[in-house]
Amino acid sequence: MSHHTLTINENEIYYESYIQDQTRQTIILLHGFLSSTFSYRHLIPLLKDEFNVISIDLPPFGRSGTSHRYVYSYINHANTVIQLCERLQLKKVTLIGHSMGGQIALNIAYLKPELVDGCVLLCSSAYLQKSNRSLIASSYLPFFHLFVRRHLEKTGGVEKNLRNVVYDHSKITAEMEKGYLEPFLENGIFHALKRMIRDREGDLPIEKLHQIKTPCLLIWGEYDKVVPLSIGKRLQKDLKNAKLIILNDTGHLVPEERPHEVLTHIRAFISH
């Protein structure tokens, strides 16, 4: 494994690469909201022996920057990943996106279909609207970042949030709690999150989803409380070339809960 940082769109983009043979299929991992490449720590060891793997921290999360000049929209995240692929001279990649990362993967497939061989969407975000006007207006208040911090703390902190996204609570460990908490120990992320509230556009509308012809594999947890299975079933209908896999007794955090099953489905999807 090697660690890298590149400046793209006026922000520092951190990524990890596991490259052994350039002739093999390259997988790009995109994490979800309030997460980082840490969420793929169980899946990466399973993928890296068969594929070239690049795992990206989407700003402002993980080890990527929190620049106030960066636009924290889905389309800019998508363009950032596209530019990273161009810098690395990557072609025909497979995108794996969890939650928000799935929506960014769909944006990439819409914006630059020739780059993408396929998308694996793990409990992907879909059909969310833009933040309401009053919340966007509030984000311009001088101390709004403190409100964002307090709101996250009031939701119960990392432990309660993990209990909401993981079906089997016995899988929640101290290492897991520490890994998801670490990015929020710096104040810079809360300033960036308030910009994300105003920059984030809505998820891709149905008419744009209909235009995506890229093969898509949808993998969903049966008991996902964050992005319910009904969203996965709807997304399967709105994408032209999509297959839905449902994992029993699984919540939202499928890369953590079912890495071996996810690997099996990814392997079959790529080799098809």
Automatic annotation (TrEMBL):
Highest taxon, organism lineage? Bacteria
Q: Which residues does the UniProt record annotate as the domain AB hydrolase-1?
A: 26-259
Q: What residue range is the signal peptide?
A: none
Instruction: Give the protein's recorded name.
Output: Pimeloyl-ACP methyl ester carboxylesterase
Native organism is Cytobacillus eiseniae
